[in-house]
Protein: Phenylacetic acid degradation operon negative regulatory protein PaaX
Amino acid sequence: MADSPPTSSSLARYVAHLLTDDPPRAKSLCVSLLGDALACHGGAIWLGSIIELLEPLGINERLLRTSVFRLVAQGWLQAERHGRRSLYQLSDQGLRHTEHASQRIYVGPAADWNGEWTLVALPRLGNSGLAERTELRRELDWEGFGMIAPGLFAHPRADAHTAHDILEKLGIADKALVLSGRDQAGPAGLPIASLAPQCWNLDELAGQYRHFSQQFGPLEALLDGALEPADAFAARMLLLHTWRRIVLHDPQLPVPMLPEQWPGHAARQLCGRLYWKLFDASERHLDAVAGRDNERYTPLAPSVYSRFGGRPDAGPERRGAAATP
Structure:
């Protein structure tokens, strides 16, 4: 006999509680939907299906339509008219953004580190370079670089391609230096890693991870029985959306550089456990809504099974199906 419905209604009530405490923003929630649920199914969806999937998370139709139009204007989505209906497809740019974010969301910081740093140096350009310097700092900060001296940014993991892409985007590729190297501080010197608390706001980040665990920890006890697919999908979206907002601002420093008992580790393990407990039921709802009358909705990409260290009940052929999460 199947488990009784109260488990599902308890899940719905808890999701409603989370939504009241911290309601998501429409556009950001759309990006979470595209990246987590749709990219691995071909990336195409009817506008009506977006509305049906996300309205239960407290976003009304008007805000969802506006958010989708903005994502088209920003190059994330491409729109196609089919009579009175609109089909939206992740663009090449949207797919690149999604793939780039996947490492932070589903994989996390490296367990080891070879000691190499990527450095970006922006020489003084006079007063005319102030705006460029400010914009560069904003972009590098988003990618996890820390400013270790005026005009000098460092990251222990980001590769040079990331830095070059940012400089190209800002039109200042010929005004900055991109370097790689090893710390040569010596026994009595000042290693770059010792500047981590000043260069990266780890205290604030640690607080966000602790809050995440407090928010979603009680959810685990509600997921042992049968789940209503719509409730499971809403919980998965809210879980992933909240997680994404934290980890995309995490510099992803290698584990050896992080403080002992780093709360991000426990938060990531919790997120992975919840994600996989919700996954099957949530996929049934996604298939029913996003796959309805949608020839471009494709079977789930096998690479999904590598997320959060691999699905617990998946065989090794699924967990290692692809390098891209």
In short: Residues 116-182 form a domain with the Alpha-Beta Plaits fold (CATH 3.30.70).
